[in-house]
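re: ur question from the group chat, yeah i did fold both. here u go
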Amino acid sequence: MRRHNLLRNMVFYAAEAANLHPELERPGLLPQRPEDGALAEDGSSAADFSASPGARRPADVYIPRWRGGPPAAWDFAVTSGLRLGVMAQSLRDPSAALTSYEHFNCSHRETERQCRDQGITFVPMIIEAHGGGWGKVAKGIWCELAKTSALATGELESERSCATMLQQRLAMTLHRENARACLKCSAR
């Protein structure tokens, strides 16, 4: 969770610097999902569902106006190409775990469709835990975010370097948090 939140926060600050007016974990974007398990998405108990109608949060980072149009919900997730279900596919195609998880993230609980019904563009921001590669959708976002940032700062020649630097900082954060988790486990 810490790794996820650090990556999410870095992108939030990059979007803020690009004047996109992002919001972290904006609640109430989707109708409350039905009871499923013991906890709602906001951590409240099943008995509290009626008390928290805005518990559905598909946006780790919410962008109120994306690409000059409707809002976007950027949803971050970390996956692994070493999971048993995708390891064989990952050997043939290094991006298989990313592609598979992008699809899962969109279809899980019909999040992409429900966002579309509410006029929100759902954007799965998937990173691979070991190699640090980003999914196809996220790579497109980095290019657009860099372009928007360059326009906001007036430094148009730095567009490509802005995207590269952001991706490098995110990869370093990912690997640092992976190492921290390994050290924590080995200290036990």
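okk and heres the other one u asked abt
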Amino acid sequence: MFIALAASMGIKFYFGGTTTLQLLIFGLLVMVVVQAFRMYSASYLWGTQAVTRIEAEFLCTSGPYAYVRNPLYLGNFLIGISLCIALNEWYAYILFVISYVSVYSIVIPYEERFLEGKFGNAYADYKTQTGRLLPRLKGYKGNMSVTPNYRAGILGEIHVPIILGMFLAIIYLLFVK
């Protein structure tokens, strides 16, 4: 997805496009709020969300996971949209959404099959009462409560604001007039 956004920046640069400081700031504000939500969500996984293979020591149904099964992926979508806002190009939205759908239409069903196999009926019940990417208003009432590890959540996500800051700096330097 970052490749799609970088490609959008390349197209914008090639055609000499610009954006406004107001859109950059609005995109930044949305990004800060969403990244805080991602760190909060990651704290319920004790900072173990960045993995190269699918695994789960427990079925997390607490915190944001009581409302949406994939709060980190929802956060990725909103962060991508905030970068599109800052970039201010219609094709950035299209390229980002295509890349997002391409990635998560494969990843999410794969993870769901894994969780169904590992947690059986507990995951099936959880799945019926929570949204995949759109939060439900009524939270899931599971038997397990997870105590978040905020330090691990922040440290597990610290690379994301650094990357996003670089994207915003490039947008500012190249396109804000």
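fwiw on the second one: The chain has one domain: 2-15+22-46+59-175. The mean pLDDT is 92. idk if thats what u expected
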